[in-house]
Amino acid sequence: MSEKIRTIYDLAKLAGVSGATVSRALAGSSVVSAKTAERIRELAKEHGFRPSSLARNLRIQRKGAIGVVIPLGHDQGQHISDPFFMTLIGALADELTEKGFDLMLSRVIPDHDDWLENMIDSARVDGFIIIGQSNQSEILDKAARHYLPMVAWGAFVPGQTHCAIGSDNYLGGSLAASHLIERGCKRLAFLGNPQAIEIALRLDGARAAVARAGEDITLLESPTHLAAEASGVDIDAFLDATSIMPDGILAASDLIAVTAIQVLASRGMSVPDDVRVMGYDDLLLAQTSVPTLSTIRQDIRQGARHLVESLLARINGQTTGSIVLNPELIVRGSST
């Protein structure tokens, strides 16, 4: 029976070389001659030896983990269980696992300006993926000036320092408003909290579409929480307070849109007969809601792929630029 090889030192003894030589050979270092490296690899294969990821990470001074951080500066009631977060986190986990990295997830309530610097200084991970810029763009910019391995899901605006990957939120807002106007809506309402840069851009796009449409189209704006229960309270209060009942609703997320449909139903109003509704994201719930939800699709899986690829390039010392993905109008039952 062949001798069991458990460590690089067992393999080194069998090959008659040092442990350092085995480590370099398995890492593909050119310091070791091709003949010796090939013999070591053959011995490793013969004895079924694979160096542990921990040993490899120690050798290249990496932790083997990526920090995925959700900062909630503008809407602290959101939870990690939010459907958008879960969808993007799932896609990121798939991408990172395939690349050999673990995922360390954190939900942060930014109660001081050095929250991100403290996370960087802790040196527990090889880099950070920030999910959503919230109202923390300046904090991200400050860190990006000296810390390379960090990317964010969200908007890009001129002058921004940190690397962001996300959809064109301005275009998405414009597409949503234009669609409702084309379907005959004249009294639009935007539901979302524009303290977050992505939502602010969606609102700006909707405003531009309304301005292009002419004076007979109005746009009401209602700051609305992203969490389902809180958004329901906000939507009820908005409908109670407004003297102009909207015939078209643009929601800043699919979850807000579905909640709006439920609130309208509780008031005896029908979607789309009385009010047409648009969401944003195209999550699974948009396809399963009743009626099915018209929305603006963000390609979340493609975004996750770009986030991971950009971050890995930055971990290796390369500078990467921001990426803006095109949103897509998806028309379903809630606006037909």
UniProtKB/TrEMBL annotation:
Pfam families for the chain: LacI, Peripla_BP_3
UniProt keywords, alphabetically: DNA-binding, Transcription, Transcription regulation
UniProt key word Zinc: no
PROSITE patterns, A to Z: HTH_LACI_1 (PS00356), HTH_LACI_2 (PS50932)
Residues in HTH lacI-type domain copies: 6-60
MF GO annotations: DNA-binding transcription factor activity; transcription cis-regulatory region binding
Keyword Transcription: yes
UniProt protein name: LacI family DNA-binding transcriptional regulator
Organism: Altericroceibacterium endophyticum
